[in-house]
What does this fold into?
Amino acid sequence: MNKDVTGSLIWAGVIIALALAASWGRSAGLIDEDTTTRIVFVAIGLMVAWYGNRAPKTFVPGARARQAKRVAGWSLVISGLIYAGAFAFASIDTALIVGCGAIILGIAVTFAYCVSLRKGTKAT
It folds into this structure.
């Protein structure tokens, strides 16, 4: 099986297992609803950071494609860690704004950089 597919399936299994364990812990009275939500959202943020870290390591032909992958990797790692940190330490309302804003900003940075590379290619 492909290494990327295996990693993705592992992440899916981990998030499902965490969600089920947190749900069980909440129903058993061990943790509250807020903690249950935080556990799942922190795992999602760490998953985004993991994918961002993997992106530049994936072989892509061409210097510009590698540049785009590198920027995408860094922006996703940083935004994923901000997302995870927000849900770990901030109130849920604040974490939604900060975490989702970080992910949206990471995507926007990647998109803007790719557009700038494309414009640079047309000019040369």
